[in-house]
Design a protein that fits this description.
single chain; alpha+beta; Aminopeptidase; two-stranded antiparallel ribbon; 5 helices; disordered C terminus
């Protein structure tokens, strides 16, 4: 049985390894890059796991207490937007996908986020081609509200694809701006 709990400072090294695996394995699913996060110090991962009422990271652990998934949450700051929050960094290792771990992580994240006083809106971002994630989130009642043109640009050599002849990065999102009207 999978156990889900809030990650603590003692989990920083394990979380770092999982996060880097996620960024390497699924570069088009995250706004962060492997290269950027690999440069972060252990202390920065400890700080990222500092639980507050306004942010936390959940980990999913298998029966051997190995971390197999994670998801983060934070509340927006500011008087006019503190009713909103954001889910980020959702990841389940490939060998454990299809076993309900992602669903359990999202369910726990939503349960905890909804328990926050004044919380009325939770948002998240999904890469345009990530239909499995979009389907999971839709099953929880999330709705598509926007498509960001060229939201992410991933250099093809970093995501195990042959570089394009032009060397241009692959941009994920909608095709871009609509054509100019004549």
């Amino acid at each position: 049985m999978t156990k889900i709990r809030i990650l603590r400072a003692a989990d920083a090294s394990t979380f770092r390894n999982l996060r880097l695996e996620a960024l390497r394995e699924s570069p088009t699913s995250f706004a962060s890059s492997y290269e950027d996060e690999a440069r972060l110090t252990p202390g920065e991962f400890v700080r990222r796991l500092a639980r507050t009422d306004e942010s936390w990271v959940l980990g999913a652990f298998d029966p051997t207490n190995t971390i197999v998934g994670c998801v983060g949450w934070y509340r927006y700051r500011g008087r006019k937007i503190s009713h909103k929050s954001h889910i980020w960094g959702m990841y389940v290792i490939p060998a454990e996908r299809g076993k309900g771990i992602g669903r359990a992580l999202v369910n726990e994240a939503l349960t905890r986020a909804r328990a926050q006083a004044g919380m009325t809106q939770i948002d998240l971002l999904v890469a345009a081609g990530n239909t499995a994630a979009a389907s999971l989130y839709t099953s929880f009642g999330f709705e598509r509200v926007a498509v960001y043109p060229r939201a992410l640009c991933v250099v093809p050599t970093l995501n195990k694809r042959r570089p394009r002849a032009s060397g241009d990065p692959e941009c994920i999102g909608s095709p871009g701006f609509p054509p100019a009207r004549e």
